[in-house]
Design brief:
Blueprint: E1 2-5, H1 20-26, E2 31-35, H2 37-43, E3 51-58, H3 66-69, E4 77-81, H4 83-90, E5 98-103, H5 110-115, E6 121-126, H6 132-145, E7 150-152, H7 162-167, E8 177-179, H8 183-192, E9 195-200, E10 206-207, E11 216-221, H9 230-235, E12 237-240, H10 252-268
Parallel strand pairs: 1-4, 3-4, 6-7, 6-11, 7-8, 9-11, 9-12, 10-12
Antiparallel strand pairs: 2-5, 3-5
């Protein structure tokens, strides 16, 4: 482990960590920020699909995190700073006290990814999900229930945004994911790969509990509010979660969790 101490917030060695919130909004050109012990544990685990570029940690946490730091690959620098310097680097009070910069994995070809999945597989697909909390929740649910991949269209936000990674408890870093050029392109690719596409909507024709596991299945969710476009719903099998009278809306991540539990459990039966 290459340990280096930083005393100046403007030290060029930690430039990737400077003004995190502002740079989150403008993008990081293939890089991302991992924040907190849970996420760093995933990033440094064998399950991670991402390469670690560097680690930045509050000096007072070093002794408590020796097990985690021992997994930092050879040649990857670990920077340590006082909490005050760390906060000035990040641009806000960083109470979790540990960060890392990682490299996004190469995005696989969508058709190749789907073709390589087993004959019984479940994937989660999202359209127009622009909220990073929801995106992180979708990845967390996919990992929890055994979905093989998370797919998205061109209207979804970047799952490698710092908050999305944090909400996913690191699932973004270990789950295969591809962004298609459009929702139509995404559905076409799924159908070419012989996936039954199940569209989750409150106006469903089929209750979720009636879904049976069979072959390849994709659960498609849309943004909260508008949901999936009517022409897409008319093309696909629609499934929904029955709710009490007068209420027809669940958070998209919550609804996806219920549906993935049903579909993945049925697929394994």
């Amino acid at each position: 482990m290459s340990m280096q101490f930083v005393e100046d917030p403007d030290d060029p060695r930690v430039a990737d960590y400077r003004d995190i919130r502002e740079r989150d909004l403008t993008g990081r050109q293939g890089l991302f920020i991992a924040e907190g012990e849970v996420v760093l544990n995933t990033l440094l685990s064998p399950a991670s699909r991402c390469r670690t570029r560097s680690v930045l940690m509050a000096a007072h946490r070093l002794d408590q995190r020796q097990e985690l730091l021992a997994r930092v690959p050879d040649g990857v620098p670990v920077y340590a700073a006082s909490q005050a310097v760390l906060d000035r680097i990040a641009g806000f009070s960083l109470h979790r006290g540990m960060l890392a910069v990682g490299e996004k994995p190469p995005q696989p070809d969508l058709d190749t990814l789907l073709a390589d999945l087993p004959e019984r597989a479940v994937v989660l697909a999202a359209s127009g999900v622009g909220n990073h909390d929801n995106m992180g929740g979708l990845f967390r649910n996919a990992a929890a229930f055994g979905a093989a991949a998370v797919l998205s269209d061109d209207l979804c936000c970047d799952p490698f945004y710092r908050k999305a990674i944090r909400v996913s408890v690191g699932a973004v870093l270990r789950t295969p994911t591809v962004a298609a050029t459009s929702l139509k392109a995404l559905i076409d690719a799924l159908e070419r790969a012989r996936f039954e596409v199940l569209a989750l909507t409150p106006a469903a024709r089929t209750p979720l509990k009636a879904v049976q596991g069979r072959g390849r299945q994709a659960l498609l969710v849309g943004s909260e509010g508008p949901g999936l476009p009517p022409d897409i719903l008319s093309r696909l099998t629609t499934v929904g979660v029955p709710m009490a009278g007068g209420f027809d809306s669940l958070n998209v991540a919550t609804a996806a969790a219920l549906a993935l539990h049903q579909i993945c459990d049925a697929a394994q039966a």
